[in-house]
Amino acid sequence: MPQMSRQDPLIEHHTVDYVPLAERHGKARDLFTLWFSTNIAPLPIVTGAMVAQVFHLNLLWGLLAIALGHLLGGVVIALASAQGPRMGIPQMVQSRGQFGRYGALLIVFFAALIYIGFFISNIVLAGKSIVGIVPSVPVPASILIGALSATAIGVIGYRFIHTLNRIGTWVMGSALLAGFVYIFAHDLPADFLTRGGFNAAGWLATVSLGIIWQISFSPYTSDYSRYLPADIGITRPFIATYLGATLGTILSFAFGLVAALATPEGTEAMVAVKQATGALGPILMVLFLLNIISHNALNLYGAVLSIITSIQTFASRWTPSIKVRVVLSGVILAGCCLVALGASADFIAQFIGLILALLLVLVPWASINLIDFYLIKRGVYDIASIFQADGGVYGRFNLHAIVAYFIGIIVQLPFANTSLYVGPWANLVEGADLSWLVGLAVTCPLYYCLATRKQTQKVRAAKLGYSD
User: Fold this and answer.
1) CATH class assigned to 21-354
2) Which pLDDT score is estimated for 456?
3) Sign of the alpha-carbon dihedral angle for 302, 130, 348, 33
4) CA–CA separation, 68 vs 364, rounded Å?
5) In sequence order, which residues have a C-beta less than 8 Å from that of residue 194 and are 6 or more positions away?
6) N or C: which end of the chain has fewer CB within 10 A?
7) Where is the chain membrane-spanning (predicted)?
8) 390 — phi, psi (to 5°)?
9) CB burial class (10 A; 0-12, 13-18, 19+) of residue 194?
């Protein structure tokens, strides 16, 4: 086994700073394994079971809606991921180049809140999973075990996260395929193919859910591609991320759907998985537990980078060390464990509802991010300005981006269908939250027009100055 050089430390020493070209490493296929393995987990499987249990689609129409939703939404996560090698900085830091140094703080705050919310939800889920496998372990101890394990992975950082997911791709992928084989090799219910049917509301709701699922990852995708060589280009990271994210989620959603249809109607999703997979069930539960812990490390990692980004906004000359990341991880761990230990029985459902509501703020951000990177600046940013106290060429606030962002949120509200708020037009298609579609349709052209208008004004001013 080759020894690690000083440039390849076990514990990541970069935080939100630029990754120098000499320290770049890895291949595009690492993005495939990361996003494929990450999405083979209980939450997407439970969500897939909803296609039959809640939206009442049959197998054929359910699979078509699942595939279409993730294939469409996967474009967003793949485009965001492909920015990493070119920029060499975390996604939230890059937002300064679009919103201005201080203008990006609101996005960073929402991102941190989402990461912490998912981290707490997943350590509760991990604790319950441990108790389900080893009932003799007390719930508080189970929660602490899950939290400490995820924190250890998150502290070690980028390289270890990618290594675990390379292994996880083979292990989790093989286990899921074995589960499919087991289900179809045994007797299926008589209504396996006919339970449910087609209904426009359920089909659109499933497609919409797949798109939203993929968009929800976009605030931190380039965090895991920023170490790749800068000359790797756009196409290879895009394809690797797209295939990994879409195949992983489609397989997981489909597995949940198949397990739900292979068991009596009304069976709880994970119970259905256990029943449908027979002897494989306990093995799958252990693997799912390990995947929950591994995936939760991404939430902690993203939360730490977001909080450091916020602090560093007001201290431009500060370059956080490994110790800062470790200490901050410990603080988040302690706070999240206190919340998790006092969580109510329906805590996960409540938190997931909050997080899905917060997606209202992610859609306009993703729109501005992609339009700015690919159509306005075409991947060319002044990295030095991003770290300057006054924002350099990007300033402290970019009003055009901020205006487009808030308008993008406001136009979604009438169509929002969340646990926190239901808009007056939320049920245009019953059961489907189409607010994201309105957000994209308004924010993308609005920001493009505002940004290009600003560029045109600068060009005209330069010409007038030259003629004078």
Assistant:
1) mainly alpha
2) 65
3) positive
4) 22
5) 58
6) N
7) 31-55, 61-82, 102-125, 137-160, 167-185, 197-217, 238-263, 283-305, 326-345, 351-376, 397-414, 434-450
8) -95, 10
9) exposed
